[in-house]
Amino acid sequence: MMSKLKTWVGAAALVCVGLTGQAGAQEKENLWSDVQERGTLRVGVAEAPPLLVRDPKTGEWSGYFLDVMEGFAEAIDVEVEPVETTWGNMVAGLQAGKWDISSALNRKPQRALAVNYSIPIWSYEIGLLHDTRNPKITEDMTSLADFDKEDITIAVMQGAAGDLSITPQIKNAKIIRLDGANEGRLAIISKRADVFATDSDIHRITILQNPDWAAQVLPEPAIAKQGIAFGLRKSVPLEDVQVLDIYLEEQVATGNVQRLYDAAVDAMTAK
């Protein structure tokens, strides 16, 4: 009995040493204290209307995900500072400390190994935008497999959820990787690509703005359906993540996120 007890104590000690080593390797940061001391909340942003929108004339950023961050920043008495990046660098830049929080990240198990997620405030489904005049695209094409043909070119945003979800499934079609949603739409217009695979909400904006040619397929079975959230570094303690989650939970429950989404869509389609 004493021998077993010694063995258990020794094992427990090793576990404690291991945990201490991990804690040392991943030192926790006081995110909100640091943000309040600086006076600004740096938010990583990349083009994905209506979630995140860059005005090509002024360079200013808007979109309902940024609107939600504006509200949170006001709650903790700081200003939002958008930091422009690409979807391919959205996680790496966060980890490098170039900004404090990443916008509009899809919640995926693989990413959760690298970042902490907030609760999701919106849902995501990959749609395939196409030109209705493209003779390669027919009404009977309803699954991703139907588009996996040698004469089909699929545009994705590099490093974004569409890229990560579709690439492993494609065996025959050509994939081109672009920096943002505008480039994806232009690829369809210029016939550089046959379909653009990304968030169906992004495609809805394009369709509302271009009803004469734009349409999308929501494949069955679905390519991906995920929650969209904010990303924080792994070094941010869960109690700091909870501060953000409590704010977001109320914004979703009261319908404010839906109202911000509707306003963003109205603003984009009114132009």
Counting copies of identical and different chains, the oligomeric state is: single chain
CATH class annotation of the largest domain: Alpha Beta
Task: Report strand %.
Answer: 15-25%
Order of helices and strands: HHEEEHEHEHEEHEHEHEHEEHH
Helical amount: 40-55%
Low-confidence stretches: 1-25
Which descriptor suits the 3D outline? globular
**Broad structural category:** alpha/beta
Number of helices: 11
According to CATH, what is the topology of the largest domain? D-Maltodextrin-Binding Protein, domain 2
- The CATH architecture of the largest domain comes to 3-Layer(aba) Sandwich
Q: Averaged pLDDT, please? A: 90
Number of strands: 12
The figure for the number of domains is: 2
Q: Distance between the terminal alpha carbons, to the nearest Å? A: 79 Å
Query: What Rg is obtained from the alpha carbons, in whole angstroms?
Result: 22 Å
Q: Overview of this structure, please?
A:
The protein is an alpha/beta fold and 271 residues long. The chain has two domains: 29-123 and 227-269, 3-Layer(aba) Sandwich (D-Maltodextrin-Binding Protein, domain 2), CATH 3.40.190; 125-225, 3-Layer(aba) Sandwich (D-Maltodextrin-Binding Protein, domain 2). 42% of the residues lie in helices and 23% in strands. Strands 1, 4, 5, 6, 7, 8, 9, 10, 11 and 12 form a ten-stranded mixed β-sheet that branches. A two-stranded antiparallel sheet has the order 2-3.
